[in-house]
């Protein structure tokens, strides 16, 4: 992919937040401009309970402030799961959307013209969940059972990887395709035997209803990917750079203001702060290099055989080519400076 290498930067923060940014950001070539000529009238992004930086940016109004001089409207669209974010990207509802790495690769492989421009977290957001008192205590117990999962998302691929690790496959269980929140309800109501869950709903049922996370494996979670439609990246690279600066601002702000960040998640997702603390501080690692690269590629290479074995790929698609061209890192590489 080739896109214009023009960059611009607006003055970010003063005070403590600006000092926090200084440790992780570097200036963008091209200087500071009061206005950018390539700013569209509307910038459309998703937000999601499992993307904490999106919640902070939206709550604090940072993008509205960032693009106020140009008068750009910021439109926020809620994603209930990676499947919805991919749907919004594919149907031109949003320009930038949040997914798990597995979902991003599958979408690109199957024809969605997206690229990953940023990592927003290293989460442990998926696990296998059973109701309190269930006889299901290990992966092998799922054989022949009903398991709720949202197809096209990390919990679904977590389930498939988990089954494969003990010699089972998706055909050995009955997958009940429900959106994440509905999967939790189905588990508690006894409509399914187990659930391949997603936070914050997973932490909520664990803490409030006694559900058991009977299989956890952080390596089966495929990172938090921020993705963009290729046309938008080509047409508005300076805008994308400014958005990524706000994402970095949020990632650092959350680490410096954990209580405030947890309160934002609790408010948005209607959680207790006990639940939001578990999700944000126990299961979400934000102290990361946000540039996607070899580490994330290795995680996705493990998932590719699962895609193939479970017939997830469309005829004629090339998953290796999709992986080779998934990451577009020029902009974030200009913004983020790894700690020495």
SSE diagram, text form:
Blueprint: H1 15-22, E1 42-47, H2 52-60, H3 62-66, E2 73-78, H4 82-90, E3 96-100, H5 101-109, E4 114-123, E5 126-130, E6 146-149, H6 154-165, E7 174-177, H7 180-189, E8 194-198, H8 201-209, E9 212-215, E10 224-229, H9 230-235, H10 237-256, H11 258-269, H12 273-282, E11 284-285, H13 294-309, H14 319-324, H15 330-335
Parallel strand pairs: 1-2, 6-7, 6-8
Antiparallel strand pairs: 3-10, 4-10, 4-11, 5-8, 5-9
Helix pairs in contact: 1-10, 2-10, 2-11, 5-13, 7-8, 10-11, 11-12
Task: Give a written overview of the molecule.
- The protein is of the alpha/beta class.
- It folds into 2 domains: 15-123 and 222-335, Periplasmic binding protein-like II (D-Maltodextrin-Binding Protein, domain 2); 126-220, Periplasmic binding protein-like II (D-Maltodextrin-Binding Protein, domain 2), CATH 3.40.190.10.
- 43% of the residues lie in helices and 17% in strands.
- The chain contains 15 helices and 11 strands.
- It has helices at residues 15-22, 52-60, 62-66, 82-90, 101-109, 154-165, 180-189, 201-209, 230-235, 237-256, 258-269, 273-282, 294-309, 319-324, 330-335, and strands spanning 42-47, 73-78, 96-100, 114-123, 126-130, 146-149, 174-177, 194-198, 212-215, 224-229, 284-285.
- The strands form 3 sheets. A 5-stranded mixed beta sheet has the order 7-6-8-5-9, sandwiched between helices.
- The longest helix is centred in the last third of the chain and has 20 residues, at 237-256.
- The chain starts with 14 loop residues before the first helix and ends in a 5-residue tail after the last helix.
């Amino acid at each position: 992919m080739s896109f214009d290498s023009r960059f611009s930067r607006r003055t970010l923060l003063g005070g403590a937040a600006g000092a926090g940014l200084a440790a992780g950001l570097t200036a963008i070539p091209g200087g500071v401009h009061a206005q950018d000529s390539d700013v569209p009238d509307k910038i459309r992004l998703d937000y999601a309970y499992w993307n904490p930086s999106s919640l902070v940016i939206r709550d604090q109004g940072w993008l509205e402030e960032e693009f106020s001089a140009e008068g750009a409207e910021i439109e926020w669209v809620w994603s209930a799961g990676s499947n919805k974010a991919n749907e919004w990207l594919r149907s031109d509802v949003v320009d930038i959307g949040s997914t798990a790495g597995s979902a991003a690769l599958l979408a690109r492989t199957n024809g969605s013209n997206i690229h990953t421009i940023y990592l927003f977290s290293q989460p442990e957001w998926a696990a296998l969940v059973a109701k309190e008192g269930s006889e299901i205590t290990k992966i092998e117990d799922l054989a022949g059972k009903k398991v709720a999962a949202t197809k096209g998302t990390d919990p679904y691929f977590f389930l498939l990887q988990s089954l494969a690790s003990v010699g089972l496959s998706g055909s050995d269980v009955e997958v009940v395709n429900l959106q994440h929140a509905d999967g939790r309800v189905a588990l508690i109501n006894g409509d399914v035997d187990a659930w391949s869950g997603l936070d914050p709903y997973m932490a909520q049922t664990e803490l409030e209803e006694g559900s058991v996370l009977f299989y956890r494996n952080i390596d089966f979670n495929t990172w938090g990917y921020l993705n963009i439609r290729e046309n938008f990246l080509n047409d508005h690279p300076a805008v994308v750079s400014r958005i990524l600066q706000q994402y970095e601002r949020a990632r650092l702000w959350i680490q410096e203001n954990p209580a405030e960040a947890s309160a934002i998640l609790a408010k948005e997702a209607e959680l207790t702060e006990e639940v939001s603390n578990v999700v944000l501080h126990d299961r979400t690692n934000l102290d990361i290099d946000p540039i996607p690269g070899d580490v994330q590629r290795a995680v996705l290479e493990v998932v590719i055989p699962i895609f193939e074995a479970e017939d997830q790929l469309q005829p004629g698609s090339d998953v290796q080519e999709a992986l080779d061209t998934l990451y577009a890192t020029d902009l974030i590489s200009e913004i983020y400076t790894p700690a020495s």
